[in-house]
Amino acid sequence: MSIDKDTARRVAHLARIEVAETDLEHLAGELSGILGFMEQLREVDVEGIEPMTSVTPMELPWREDVVTDGGNAERVLANAPDARDGFFTVPKVVE
After folding, report:
1. This prediction's pTM
2. Least crowded by CB within 10 Å, which of 18, 59, 76, 84?
3. Distance between CA 5 and CA 29 in Å, rounded?
């Protein structure tokens, strides 16, 4: 599939990317190349191939799902510009 300058202009507009008029021809070529590569990928026979989440087989570590306070409130609050009674203090925004 080939992309023309008008289509490249439309894609740039939809992506909210400012592209100079002189660069539209190059962008159209780049987009055409991407679509060509996608067409090549469609031709690959993947029947019976299991999807994978990583190129190396690995098991994700499991942990017990328990609610905690993190155990380090003092360290976290030490970074706050203002903290009182164990909480962040923020400016009042509602009258």
Report:
1. 0.52
2. 59
3. 9
